[in-house]
From TrEMBL:
Pfam families: LRR_8, TIR. InterPro entries: Cys-rich_flank_reg_C (IPR000483), Leu-rich_rpt (IPR001611), Leu-rich_rpt_typical-subtyp (IPR003591), LRR_dom_sf (IPR032675), TIR_dom (IPR000157), Toll_tir_struct_dom_sf (IPR035897). Keywords: Glycoprotein, Immunity, Inflammatory response, Innate immunity, Leucine-rich repeat, Membrane, Receptor, Repeat, Signal, Transmembrane, Transmembrane helix. GO terms for cellular component: plasma membrane. One of its GO terms (biological process) is inflammatory response. This is TLR1 protein. It comes from Urocynchramus pylzowi. Residues 492-635 form the TIR domain. Residues 1-28 form the signal peptide. Belongs to the Toll-like receptor family.
Amino acid sequence: MTQNTSFLRNVFLYKCLFALTFWNHVRLSVEDELFTSVSNNFPEDDSNKKIKSLPLLYTNSHKSKANWVVIQNTTESLSLSEITNDNVKNLIALISNFRQGSRLRNLTLTNVSVKWNDLMEILQTVWHSSIEYFNTNNVTQLSDIESYDFDYSGTSMKALTMEKTIITDMYFTQDDLYKIFADMNIADMTIADSEMIHMLCPSSKSPFRYLNFLKNDLTDFLFQNCDNLLQLETLILQKNKFESLRKVSFMTSRMKSLRHLDMSSNLLRHDGAAAQCQWAESLAELDLSSNQLADAVFECLPVNVRKLSLRNNRIGNVPRGVAELRSLQELNLASNRLADLPGCSGFASLQFLNVEMNSILTPSADFFQSCPRVRELQAGHNPFKCSCELQAFIRLERRSGGKLFGWPAAYVCEYPEGSRGTELKDFHLSPLACNTTLLLVTALLLTLLLVAAVAFLCIYLDVPWYVRMTWQWTQTKRRARHDAPGDQGAALQFHAFVSYSERDSPWVKNELIPNLEKGEGCVQLCQHERNFIPGKSIVENIINCIEKSYKSIFVLSPNFVQSEWCHYELYFAHHKLFSENSDSLILILLEPIPPYLIPARYHKLKALMAKRTYVEWPKERSKRALFWANLRAAISINLPKADENMYEETD
């Protein structure tokens, strides 16, 4: 009995193994007959594996019914392409086999060219199958659009995606087309890149939670006054032809559950305060990037928005006190025209700010003080002007604790030309160059020191006195030329002008004048007591006497250096020495002069005594004859006869 039982068990196992092997062989051979191409990732040995995704190229087959049953039992995702009027009926028959409860969940049809009714029948068949996600790509409708009584009941569908759908019928009733899709009782629907110009509001309360109408031709008329999208949470209208931000706001005002709205890459504008806006209170994420919005956009924004993108618009400033977006946490203002970082007076909860690729030369250093909750600032790729003002922003980065996103690579000097390409972290200026107060104080101190030094030198060298004397010399010369324009050739009247201190006048009168003016080769001397012209100033008389004398004799002594008028006479004589390039000075040292007695302003006298030879008055009488002979020789000159007559008349 035991052996028989064991034998029967082995026979039964053998038959089961044979049946399983035979079924696998049949399944593979049948599938090869039905489809001409299988994807590269299709398993070579699938006897121990389950097929979950099967992308295939459809062809006709007389054994189609048996093969479809096999596919129904072995796949969850199916992709078919090249659907035409010739094989559309077979496709519909295939889909009808995937009844609710089958494993197939995803169906994708690519390159479909069928009539309107066939397209609707495909959609209707899918609607009542096990398929939950239906995708079409590159669909062309060939015939006229007609009314179709679509049955929305009893569906497993969750999402419909249609991309690149072409409607060839140019004249049709809009309800016949748009009502089919508007009234679908599914959660997600995408109709993208299909040149769609309109979409109807659902005729009853819609279960739509996600609508994506990317890259179509929709306008401001979409969903106006629509009350049946109460469950809609996400609406994507990117790359359409919307123009009025105000109308967009009113479109959303009746969508009580809307949280995410994408209006990027449209033609949106906003006129300003005169146009009031009304957004859905539930709207938390709004994308308005790549439009034509300016500063006035901040007057038309949803008050409860948390994430806002205004990237690539025409915004030059964020007006203060206009927008009170207290829930805003993330703001993207990249690729606009901002000249500085915006403040956070209206954005109390702001945590992330993007201002990359604007026109910010010198960002405000107090940004994080006005925006204490900001955790990340993206401010790179701006044309930074590396100057003293930027130093504060660089120090801000060091104190921010890594809040500057992209630092340091994205933060590079653009101006001035010499610093272009330098990363901000490598840009440094001295504290003196960047501290205006310190720079002004330093410049003021240097100026005061310079003024003090110049004043000291002027006082020490008696510069004002020399300036005054030069002015008087110039004025006297001008008057002399004006009073006697034809008398320039008869200027010399004296052999020498004698300059001395009044305290040395006894020696001049008792020794100098008698010995030079009497005897052989008498010398005609000009003395102030007898040759100054009454009515003229002392300075003018000094200048005239020096001008009319061939030589100027200076009787030097300690008394001479104490006389102001002797200083005048020495200055004018020295001036003539250089102006006429003549050797007209004769120095007589009557008494030795200690250097410490010579005032600082007598630097010319010091220079003359150091460089020129002077005649010293001898104390020994035996040497005085030689003294007078040398002095006569020094001033010896033959005056013109006319000059002698003039002297005699003057005398």
